[in-house]
């Protein structure tokens, strides 16, 4: 198994050293000494989301492109959304950040998962629901980046229908169907129709 490369950052050097030493004692974790080499996960330990912390997260997202485990004393709903935008996939309250939970969070983050406390997850889900209901739907948009008619076309494509059959089913012209497929593949950087169907399946819209 390939080692998970982890970078630990904290305002308090003693805390940083303690967490680094513990993680480095695991046989499947390699703690990075500096931020020059690529890492899989960044563990950031702080009291609250200050402007400096947010700046650090943004720089990390831009230059490291690593999943972030945030260990923090307190975080507001607004700060949570900012953190998620900056690559944070796991949030641990400092009072509950035991060695075992930090290990679990690092492993989960390294494998593409996430870990959020129940109350924080609830805030995030409510915000996503708000965006979907009040921002996207009134403009005919979807979180997948697809509009309703594109989703309809892709759903029928996934069922094996031809362009002509899709046009008949949706009361479009064949040219309109081809244009819809061409527009969405170009906009989303998709190679062809099977790639577009696979994209829609991954996004859970068909």
From TrEMBL:
SMART domains: HTH_LUXR. Pfam families: GerE. Coiled coil: none annotated. The keyword tRNA processing does not apply. PROSITE patterns: HTH_LUXR_2 (PS50043). GO terms for molecular function: DNA binding. Keywords: DNA-binding, Transcription, Transcription regulation. The keyword Kinase does not apply. Transmembrane segments: none annotated. It comes from the Bacteria. Residues 139-204 form the HTH luxR-type domain. InterPro entries: Sig_transdc_resp-reg_C-effctor, Tscrpt_reg_LuxR_C, WalR-like. Gene3D superfamilies: 3.40.50.2300. This is DNA-binding NarL/FixJ family response regulator. It comes from Kibdelosporangium banguiense.
């Amino acid at each position: 198994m390939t080692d998970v490369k982890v970078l630990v950052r904290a305002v308090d050097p003693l805390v940083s050293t303690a967490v680094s030493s513990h993680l480095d004692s695991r046989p499947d974790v390699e703690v990075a000494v500096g931020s020059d080499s690529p890492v899989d996960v960044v563990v950031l330990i702080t009291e609250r989301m200050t402007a400096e912390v947010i700046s650090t997260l943004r720089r990390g997202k831009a230059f490291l492109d690593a999943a972030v485990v945030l260990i923090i004393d307190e975080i507001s709903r607004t700060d949570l959304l900012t953190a998620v935008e900056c690559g944070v996939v796991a949030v641990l309250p400092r009072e509950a950040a035991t060695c075992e939970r930090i290990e679990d969070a690092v492993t989960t983050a390294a494998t593409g998962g996430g870990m959020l406390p129940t109350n924080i997850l609830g805030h995030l889900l409510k915000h996503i629901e708000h965006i979907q209901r009040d921002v996207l739907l009134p403009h005919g948009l979807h979180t997948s980046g697809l509009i309703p008619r594109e989703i309809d076309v892709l759903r029928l494509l996934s069922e094996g229908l031809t362009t002509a059959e899709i046009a008949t089913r949706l009361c479009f012209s064949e040219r309109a169907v081809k244009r819809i497929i061409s527009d969405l593949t170009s906009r989303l950087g998709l190679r062809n129709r099977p790639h577009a169907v696979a994209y829609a399946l991954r996004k859970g819209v068909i």
